[in-house]
Amino acid sequence: MRVIADITERPSTPAVLTIGSFDGVHLGHKALINSVVESARILGVASVALTFEPSPREVLMPGMPLAYLTRLPQKLDLLRQTGLDETVVIPFTQELSRVEAPDFINWLRTYLPFVELWEGAGFALGRGRTAGTEALASLGEELGYRLCVAPLVEVEGGPVSSTRVREAVLLGDMREAARLLGRLYAVPGVVAAGSKRGRDLGYPTANLDTPPHQAVPADGIYATWATRHSTGERLPSVTSVGLRPTFENSERLVEVHILDYSADLYGETLTTEFVAYLRPQERYEGIEPLIKQMAQDVGMTRAILAENG
Question: What is the pTM of this model?
Answer without folding.
Answer: 0.92
